Amino acid sequence: MSQFTLSRRHFLASTAGFIALHPFSANAATNQAHLRIMETTDLHVHVFPYDYYADKPRDTVGLSRTASHVKAIRAEATNSMLIDNGDFLQGNPMGDYIAYERGMKEGDMHPVITAMNTVGFDASTLGNHEFNYGLDFLMKSLAGADFPVICANVALEEGGSPTKDKTLIKPYVILDREITDGAGETHPIKVGLIGFVPPQVMNWDRRHLEGNVMARDIVDTAKAYVPVMKEQGCDLIIALSHSGIGAADHSDGMENASVPLAAIDGIDAVLTGHHHRVFPSSAYDGMAGVDVANGTLMGKPAAMGGFWGSHLGLIDLMLERSGNEWKIVSHSTEARPISKRNEDRSITALVEDQPDVLASVQAEHDATLAYVRRAVGKTDAPLHSYFALVADDPSVQIVSIAQSWYIAEMMKGTEYEGLPILSAAAPFKAGGRGGPEYYTDVAKGDVAIKNVSDLYLYPNTARAVKVSGQEVKDWLERSAGIFNQVEAGKADQVLLNPDFPSYNFDVMDGVTYEIDLSQPSKFDPKGNLINADANRIVNLMFDGKPLDMNAEFIIATNNYRAGGGGKFPGAMGDTIVFEGPDTNRDVIVRYIVEKGTISPRADANWTFAPLPGTSVLFDTGPKAADYSDSVDGVSIEAAGEGPDGFARFRIQL
After folding, report:
1. Which helix (H) or strand (E) holds 546?
2. What percent of the chain has pLDDT over 70?
């Protein structure tokens, strides 16, 4: 862990000619000290710079690379701390290997915890994905941490107010440190850290959490705890907000609460995450309460260090001592990347691996490779997601078919047997923030576990909901919000809304329908109703006839969607009729094993409604060119290069 005990004089003598001090460290006066706060967030078990789904090295990810920045930055600043902001236990096949294959017994070490111990973290908070494998797994994993892990708004027992709750783990921690000032003298400082997770975990992981814990609103919890921390003598309070940068105004239970959280008196800085973005960056330009140029939320310094180890978030604080108190007099904020994309679309690594970090989990890395390479069946056609956002797609359809197969079996002997079963599935790997290589691409032939993980990225569990025909239509209207409204007869309009995540673009199998892009969206990207009379979904048919809006249907889906994830009509947690014990990945594996050889074929059950003389543009991975002639139901042609390594294509409507 970081120790603030190195004198400035010794520091300068030992590094002269090799390392340039940060200006805050170089210019700190006798009563001033420079404190550098380093942040990782959303590591998702990415220790090695390796893509287990593609089974090849990847220079854009890995704590082993981020650790090189940590090492350099500890040398740049007289005083430093390293903090993780959550979502470290789940998110790649190494996490699944530990959870499903090796397991966690008392005394076992989780590899990401081992790696974090090696790097030397001062603290971490919980992210929402920490709960994916259950509370027992979580607590056994945390037991190996050489650093405190905190979370203030998840409680085992409610006490009437947040500060009276019996929290799952410590709500906050106060780190007593010695900080070195500009004259090389040391002084005590108390740094308070308090952690938060989106309260939506109660929906997203209901099967693990319901009846076991409760989650409170982030801002209300902070307002209760921060005065208590101040009373205990904190000189600084840093919020570890595993919550994105969203609206400035607080609303009860909001998922992305970092901006109103920053406004709370007594909070001095905010480490944020969950969004899988970088702050400060242009991604947050123009948002209320957000100053990208100065790297602040509500005037408080803030950082978000990307995801999967892609960046290290940095907050530099110039502190000034007045009496026995420290105050922030200046700050700077940045996020250091571990790689850069070149003009020719190639990636250049900006740092090397730290060998000790790799060595600490080499055995688990090797075991994970063996785990993901295990074949479970065959496919007689390629499975890819390059066109999953613009046409019916085999990689999404195989997920849908497996879900329908599973739920049909589960409905037997229940009161719902006989109701028609539809299946909703979305593409998870479809470019976007993941980059131009972030697509499913499974070749014809053997299908291994790594391929199933590639088809279905998250360890969601199977669910079934009972809905009306009207809710089926509105579910699809919600999905169709991914498309921009276009003007009929106009060429080369941008098709996709970049603010709409691909995992909320559900395709519904079991019905046929068209999407009329000339109509406005009924819902905004967050799922809020904005055009009540809008009708993008046209020619919606079931069994060859117009869909009966009053009929009842079962929809096979996952726990995230069924529990309200994405705010879909008919899927707000109150329509669930079946909660499966199996993950959707396991369902896909079982389906492939039973069939032996699968024959994935997109049947074009959804298409765009014709708009003569109209064309749209969309960006996808460059390898899409290998498959553009094989997409049914839509006319696709190459249209040059897109930004950031993507390729651009045109659809004639």
Report:
1. strand 545-546
2. 97
Q: How far apart are CA 265 and CA 100, in angstroms?
A: 44
Cβ(387)–Cβ(636) under 8 Å? yes
CB burial readout 540-559, b (16+ within 10 A) else e: bebeeeebeeeeebbbbbbb
Domain count for the chain, please give it: 2
Q: Does residue 57 sit in helix, strand or coil?
A: strand
Domain boundary among 338, 366, 394: 366
CATH code of the domain in which 448 resides? 3.90.780.10
Looking at the structure, tell me whether residues 257 and 391 fall in a common domain: no
The verdict on residue 396 lying in a domain is yes
Q: Which residues of the chain have pLDDT under 50?
A: 1-3, 5-19
Q: What tokens does 262 get?
A: 């920053």
Instruction: Give the CA distances from residue 482 to residues 34, 618, 633, in Å, rounded to whole numbers and listed in that order.
Output: 45, 12, 19
Predicted pLDDT at 24 = 87
Which domain covers residue 229, as residue numbers? 31-366
Same structural domain, 296 and 384: no
Please give the Cα distance from 382 to 380 (Å, whole number): 7
Q: What's residue 481's pLDDT?
A: 97
- 332 and 392 co-located in one domain: no
> 303 forms bridges with which residues in the sheet?
271
User: pTM of the entire structure?
Assistant: 0.76
220: part of which helix (H) or strand (E)?
helix 218-231
Tell me whether residue 373 is exposed, middle or buried, using C-beta atoms within 10 angstroms of its C-beta: 0 to 12, 13 to 18, 19 or more.
middle
Strand 79-84 to 32-40 pairing: parallel
How buried is residue 176: exposed, middle or buried, by Cβ count under 10 Å (0-12/13-18/19+)?
Answer: exposed
Q: What CATH number corresponds to the domain at position 231? A: 3.60.21.10
Contact of 541 with 513, CB cutoff 8 Å: yes
Nearest-5° Cα angle at 241, 358 to 429:
60
CA distances from 591 to 2, 316, 597 (A): 49, 52, 10
- Asked if 362 and 444 sit in the same domain, the reply is no
pLDDT in tens, 566-577: 999 999 999 999
**Contact yes or no for 277/302 (Cβ under 8 A):** no
